[in-house]
Design goal:
Blueprint lengths: L5 H22 L3 H29 L7 H22 L3 H17 L17 H36 L12 H31 L11 H22 L4 H21 L11
Helix pairs in contact: 1-2, 1-4, 2-3, 3-4, 3-5, 5-6, 5-8, 6-7, 7-8
């Protein structure tokens, strides 16, 4: 076993097997492999949900506060989104790469401390739990948006080089990729704003709201919102081409990942991360 959590190990193994079936379908269209991959992915989602509730029952708080719990919940959200996309939007290649990213997050999570945080009055409030959940949900939406933009850049390059294959015929059009990427970003942006607002409400319970402006995390999050806001300005006001929007979207998500990895270390109000 890789970790002391046997259920976590099983999730990783089944997730990897699911990706192998998805990969087989991506290389050469195989409906049987696709169905097997989807079935295993549903099983992964069920096991992840069980792991979440078992941890919540054992430690008596909603497990979304440590780096380990945050990354696990983020991976669960990506699996959830990919299952919905597979069912309603027929974005099979996108579903595969969303799950590659989700699996990578789950494996990298093995490097984090799986410990729990002491249950305090502050951590037991529903406002804080909702604040964290919405922040992670916005990150998941931005991840999907960035992956779609990455596909846009890849497909645009292949079209420019006139290098066309049967596999590429299964990709959505450039217009569809751009539209879905913007829709995902449009979901993530107000979700992050709402999360930030709830964080301010939670802080006001014990501290003056002005204390929020001394926290590095606030400015990092504000920069992310400004970058995504400018993405919408470029699209709807300046009418920039899809290629420029895709590059901006991918770059903004890379900045978001850097913010997630570093900013919490300089935050007074996220000591559990």
């Amino acid at each position: 076993m890789v970790t002391k959590f046997w259920l976590y190990d099983i999730i990783i193994y089944i997730y990897a097997l699911s990706l192998l079936f998805y990969f087989a379908d991506a290389v050469a269209r195989n409906d049987g492999a696709k169905r097997m991959g989807e079935g295993l992915l549903v099983f992964v989602w069920v096991l992840q949900t069980c792991f979440f509730f078992v941890r919540m029952y054992e430690h008596r708080y909603i497990p979304m506060f440590t780096r380990f719990e945050t990354m696990f919940f983020f991976s669960w959200l990506l699996v959830t989104v990919s299952l919905v996309a597979s069912r309603f939007f027929k974005l099979q290649f996108v579903v595969f790469f969303v799950n590659v990213f989700g699996f990578t997050v789950l494996v990298l999570n093995l490097l984090t401390d799986p410990g729990v945080v002491p249950l305090t009055r502050e951590l037991s409030t529903g406002v804080l739990s909702l604040h964290v959940a919405l922040a992670i949900a916005s990150y998941a939406a931005f991840a999907v948006s960035a992956i779609l933009s990455g596909f846009y850049l890849f497909l645009h390059l292949r079209l420019k080089q006139k290098r066309w294959t049967n596999a590429l015929r299964r990709l959505p059009s450039l217009e569809s990729l751009e539209r879905h990427a913007l829709q995902a970003a449009l979901v993530g942006t107000p979700t992050l704003i709402l999360s930030l607002s709830l964080g301010a409400v939670w802080l006001s319970f014990d501290s003056p709201v002005t204390a929020l402006f001394t926290d590095a995390k606030l400015y990092a999050t504000a920069s992310i919102l400004l970058l995504y806001g400018w993405l919408f300005v470029m699209k709807f006001r300046l009418r920039r081409p899809g290629l420029r929007l895709a590059w901006w979207n991918v770059g903004t998500f890379l900045w978001l990942l850097l913010n997630f990895a570093v900013a919490n270390d300089f935050s007074e109000f996220h000591p559990w991360m």
